[in-house]
Q: What sequence folds into this?
């Protein structure tokens, strides 16, 4: 009998990082328990500023369009129930999440969700906007479903 051999490459697989959210949730719980909320905020800010630096640069150069494409891609990959609404003038972008796929994955596994999980939107989005003409605000958040409204707008719009 011959040996069957299968060759696979990473790009052959559908991108999925839901377990990243579970690990992040555990990190938030650990940091809050041992060091407090400010440590959670500092961790998320540092991570986001470094990880999303290419996106921040694109926003500086091109406005909110790269951010819209980023969210469309991420929520499509993760199967998010979301409505992404850019303003007609391109100066505001609303992300309306009906149910957060990350939160749903954490809950489905039976894990307790960090009471600070909303900071993964609030602080991360603020850090993405650092050094750009835009600001981020978490307008609304439902801790039971992760439903939220995230708004990005020019800093002089408020």
A:
């Amino acid at each position: 009998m011959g040996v069957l051999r299968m060759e696979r490459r990473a790009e052959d697989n559908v991108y999925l990082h839901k377990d990243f959210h579970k690990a992040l949730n555990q990190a938030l719980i650990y940091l809050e328990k041992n060091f407090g909320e400010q440590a959670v905020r500092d961790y998320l800010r540092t991570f986001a500023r470094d990880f999303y630096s290419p996106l921040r640069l694109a926003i500086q150069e091109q406005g909110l369009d790269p951010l819209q494409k980023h969210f469309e891609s991420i929520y499509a990959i993760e199967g998010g129930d979301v409505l992404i609404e850019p303003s007609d003038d391109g100066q505001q972008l609303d992300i309306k999440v009906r149910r957060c796929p990350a939160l749903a994955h954490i809950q489905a596994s039976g894990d307790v969700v960090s009471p600070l999980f909303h900071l993964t939107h609030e602080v991360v989005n603020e850090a993405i906007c650092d050094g750009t003409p835009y600001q981020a605000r978490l307008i609304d958040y439902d801790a039971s479903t992760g439903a939220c409204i995230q708004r990005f707008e020019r800093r002089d719009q408020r």
